[in-house]
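Hey,
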Amino acid sequence: LGDSTLRFEIASPLTDAPQIEQINSPADLDATLSHGTLSMTLSNTHLPRIAVRTAARTWQVPFAQDALAIGRDAANDIALDSPKVSRKHARIERRGDAFVLRDLNSTNGTWVGAQRVQEYTLNDGDSIRIGDARLVFKRGFQTEDLTMVDHATFVEMPGKKGGRRPVVIVPGMMGSELWRGSERYWPNPRYLFTNPEKFAYSEQNTFEPRGLVSEVVIVPNLVKLEQYGRLGDYFEEGLGYERGKNLFEFAYDWRQDVRISARQLGEAIEQWKIKPPLILIAHSLGCLVSRYFVERAGGKNKVERLLLVGGPHYGVPQSLPGLLYGQGLLPFGLLGERVRQVLITMPSAYQILPTFPCIYDQNNQAIDVLENETWVAEKQRPLIRLAREFRQELGTHSSVPTVSIFGYGLKTTTGARVQRNAEGQWQKVEFTYDTGGDDTIPDNSTVMEESEIHPVEQHHGSLYVDNDVKMRLKLELTR
C-alpha cells in the first residue's frame, strides 16, 4: 500500500528466551532491517465496551446485550474476584441511546471518579471503581467520529472550559531527529550499527534536536516506532489545531538525563510564548520528561492535564539487556555488541530501569537494580546513581490530573531470573514473559497511582496512532 508493505503474522507463543537478533556482519544487518516489521493490532471500536483492570489482569467486555452484570459471583458478565466486591454489585443498562450504571445496594459502593453513585448516566471515557477494580466505559465510534466536522465551532478560548487548550507533544526514546550542522544523524538505524561511536553520549558529543521523527523507525533489539509526525497531523487535519499556534512538538536529545530534557521543555514553552493552561501529551520516555517538568521544573502551574501514553512510570524490564555487564551474556552479535557499548553511555537508558520487584536471583531474592550496582561495570555505576537520584526526585504521584493510556494483552518482558556469583555479578539471565503489557512495558508499570486509565490492546510503538487512543485524546481536548 503506497510505500508500505503489510504482512499478516500469527502471534507467536510465549517463550522463555529473549527474542534477540544476532547481528554479526553488514549482511546480517541488511537482512534484519529489510525484514523488520512494526506490529499494530486492529480492533473493532464500533461497539460499546467496558475495559476492566484488576491487579491480576486487564481485559475488555463488549456491550452486545441490554445489560451487563458486575459482581463477585462467577455468573456475572464481569466477575471480580475480590472480597471488596458484592456478589451482585452493579449493573450497566442500555436505555435507548444512554448507558446507565446502577448500584445494587452493594456494601462498599460504586464510584465514578470521586463520587459514590446509586444511579449514573455514563459518558464516554468515564472511569468506574468497584472494589479495587477499575472499569472504563467506551461508547464506541465510527472512523468519521474521530474528526471535528466543523473546526470553526471549536473556538479559541485559552483557560476557559470548552476552549481549545494549547497542546505540546513530547515523543519517546529515539523519537526526535538529531542533527549536527547540515547532517542528519538520526533517524538512521543502519548508521547507528555501522558507526555507533558517533552516538555515544558525552557533554562534548552533542546533537541539535530538530523536530519529531516523521518515518517508521525499527532498531533491532531496541525500538519499533510509528511516525511521531502522524499524531500532530491528526490534530491538524482532524481537530483543527495549527502547528506553531496551539500545537507544539518538543524535540530533545533522548540520550541525555531526563532532567535536562525536562528543563529544556520548560524553556521551549517559554520561547513559544504558550499561554497556560496547556495539555502535555507524551509517549514512552517523554512521559518521564513531562512528569519531571510538572513536579520539579516549574510546570505544575502551567499544565492543566497530563495525557501519558505508554509511560514507563515504574520502569521497563526489557531495558536490562542493553546495559548488562559481560560480553556474551546475551547474544547480540558483533555489531549488536558495539551498539550496546554506545547504549551504556546514555543516562536516559538507566532512568527507565524497573523500580518494582521483577528481578530475582537463584535464591528467590529480589534484586533492586538501582540500589545494587554489582550487575554493571564500574564505568556504568555513576549513571546508575544518577538514575537513582532521578527516581527519588520524580516520585510516584502526579500533582496535576493525569490519564494513563496504556497497552495490554500482548507478549511482554515482565522480569528476569538471574544466576549471580559471590561478588554479585550476573552469570546467567532468563527473562520472563506474560501477556500483561504492550510488548515493551508491563501494564503494571504504565499506570500511575491515582490516575485515570484508558486501556487499549495495542503495541507500544503504535499506541499514539491507534484510533481508540485518538478518540480518548479527542475527548480530553474537547472537554
